[in-house]
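fyi for ur records
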Amino acid sequence: MPFFETGIQGLVVYEPRIFPDDRGYFFESFSQRAFEAEGLTMKWVQDNQARSCYGVIRGLHYQHAPHAQTKLIRALSGSILDVVVDIRKASPTYGKVFSIELSADNKRQLLVPKGFAHGYSVLSETAEILYKCDSFYSKESEGGVRYDDPALGIDWQIPAGKSLLSPKDIILPVLSEAVNHFV
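which gave:
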């Protein structure tokens, strides 16, 4: 099966089957039938696409209920380090960090359920990512955790002095001070 557990409940890696030939390749980037066979029954309502240059770090973001989002993330070009943090307070893996390289070459995708803070760093010269969401974006529901929270110890794989962040991401609180109602 193309689905792999990560050791964190609900967080799943999807690795589609690739059909290469001398002309290129073909693969199903999403199949509702395949996801439903794994018990993954979310209904996607919005696709988001972003392009960023090397060193960009975006995150760690989430949305509060009732606009919390499950996301299916993949790289269309380039390579990113996709990073999630379990922020479900009653979870045995609360505060645990998971990271994976998603690239146009490996075609892996990460299914991030509600209750996780999400971010990524761009490892290639540029990268374009696409992510499906099961709830619409709501500015009023935004939440986040600081990318460099010392308690999380995330290695974004970007050398010191080379990272590019938005002013909004720099002032996010650390996990222990973040407003979060996920259980």
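The domain at 43-177 is CATH 2.60.120.10 (Jelly Rolls). thats all i got for now
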